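To the wet lab folks,

You asked to see what we're planning to order before we commit. Fair enough. Below is the target structure as tokens, and below that is the sequence we designed to fit it. If anything looks off to you, flag it before the synthesis order goes out.
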């Protein structure tokens, strides 16, 4: 929402309307007769997590970035720390609450 506010676009937050794996941004245009048209959707999924037999046996998760980089395997605690660091260091407003 911060990025939309920066460029001066109106936005509406619909709690609970995100996809099952994360938030989404929909572009909806209203036509001349008042009908809404969903024109585009953007979803940011920064990591692909893989849980195979080997990862489960070692209590780890194989992690790949959205761009395809293999980050190897890591513990759940290490992944959580990485996600928290990414949130704390990203530009814009800090996330202060979770949308249910």
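Sequence we intend to order:
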């Amino acid at each position: 929402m911060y990025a939309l506010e920066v460029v001066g676009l109106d936005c509406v937050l619909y709690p609970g309307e995100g996809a099952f794996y994360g938030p989404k941004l929909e572009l909806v245009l209203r036509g001349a007769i008042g009908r809404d048209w969903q024109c585009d959707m953007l979803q940011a999924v920064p990591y692909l997590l893989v849980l195979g037999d080997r990862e489960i046996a070692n209590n780890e998760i194989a992690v790949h970035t959205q761009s395809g980089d293999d980050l190897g395997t890591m513990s759940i605690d290490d992944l959580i720390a990485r996600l928290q660091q990414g949130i704390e260091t990203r530009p814009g407003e800090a996330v202060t609450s979770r949308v249910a």
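Structural context that might help your review: Strands lie at 24-30, 36-43, 47-50, 61-65, 70-74. The chain has two domains: 1-45, 46-90.

Thanks,
Computational group
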